[in-house]
Amino acid sequence: MALELRGISPRARYFAARLNAGCIGGKEVVLVDTGIDEDVGRRLVSLSKEAGLEIRAIVNTHSHSDHFSANSAVVGRTGAKVWAPRTEAAIIESPHLEPYSLWGMASPPEEYVNKYTQGIACKVDHIYDSGPLEVDGVKMEAIDLSGHSINQQGILFEGILFAGDGIFGRETLAKHRFLFSSDVSGALRALDKIEALFSGGRAHKLLPSHGELLGKEEALALVAENRRNLQRTSDAIFSLVGGNTSEDILAAFAGSHSLDMTPVQHALNHTTVRAHLTHLRETGRIGPEMRGNRLIWNPLGDPLGNPPDARAAGKS
User: Fold this and answer.
1) Better pLDDT: 314 or 60
2) What are the backbone dihedrals phi and psi of residue 139, each rounded to the nearest 5 degrees, phi first?
3) pLDDT tens-digit profile of 77-124?
4) For position 303, what pLDDT does the model report?
5) Complete DSSP assignment for 236-252
6) Based on CB atoms within 10 Å of each CB, which residue in 28, 60, 135, 270 is the most buried?
7) Model pTM?
8) Residue 120: closest CA among 60, 169, 180
9) Every domain of the chain and the residues it spans
């Protein structure tokens, strides 16, 4: 997909591509994320210059490679400073940690390493946390949208929410049956926060990293669609517990949805299965058991997975 600079407001724009990169400020601008490789970085700089814009800083929402691997090319051509959330910054500076984490913090096999699991390293100049933020004179607010990634942040600028992967566009939801998450409970809380921003009038435009620019009503509808996607996946995984390990559950899920996984896809999907298992455990629907030196998962409560206390409450 060709990179195209599109306007949102007099002081907000974005580079539309497979990953939307925000571009905020006056003539001296801050990018919100960059892209997957150095070629994208070179094009970001070139298009900015053509539009009379000077890139002064990059604010990364999180540390997945498609969001930061173009940083180094931008920094090398502009001298821009890089801002990243706490914890996420460690992987941006040392991206080999990502495939290590996917392989249980052991040295990963070469099949686990590609540009989607290991990005291009970039020095992080400033760490930021949730709350008001000023980057090179541009005022914004970081919104905690952790869930998809461990400490992902969205950027709220003059009523426009650059949401990172806190929410996915309809095309992505339709294309990918199994959306990556490291913390499903966190991802649901992130959707609650996005909904509150629009319902409370603090945000009026939504730009997912993967999706179209939306107004308030469309944004609220998309929140509901993302919630349904997460809930359907959790319910599907719940239906596969009962003496099964996370590997068993992933294999059964893949078979029922005609997924043919590569080693990298297996690693990402296995992480997502475990995130859903943790969510189901946190909500009292399942519990773990060691059996034959295997960690298996079993339903708790009634056959629908309602926890015992909820079942009792229903009888009173």
Assistant:
1) 60
2) -90, 140
3) 999 999 999 999 999 999 999 999 999 999 999 999 999 999 999 999
4) 52
5) HHHTT-SSB-HHHHHHH
6) 60
7) 0.93
8) 60
9) 4-232, 239-315
The CATH class of 4-232 is alpha beta
Locate 305 and state its tokens. Answer: 């997975």
Alpha carbons 210 and 170: distance in angstroms, whole number: 9
Shared fold status for 4-232 and 239-315: no
- 167-185: string of b/e by CB count within 10 Å (b at 16+)? bbbbebbeeebbbbbbbbb
Give the end-to-end CA distance of the chain in Å, rounded to a whole number: 58
Cβ neighbours of residue 204 closer than 8 Å, sequence gap 6 or more: 159, 160, 198, 215, 216
CB atoms within 10 A of CB 276: 25
Pairwise CA distance, residues 84 & 36, whole Å: 16
For position 21, what pLDDT does the model report? 98
Topology adopted by domain 239-315: Arc Repressor Mutant, subunit A (1.10.10)
What amino acid occupies position 87? T
In whole angstroms, give the CA distance from residue 122 to residue 70.
Answer: 9
In contact, 65 and 100? CB cutoff 8 Å: no
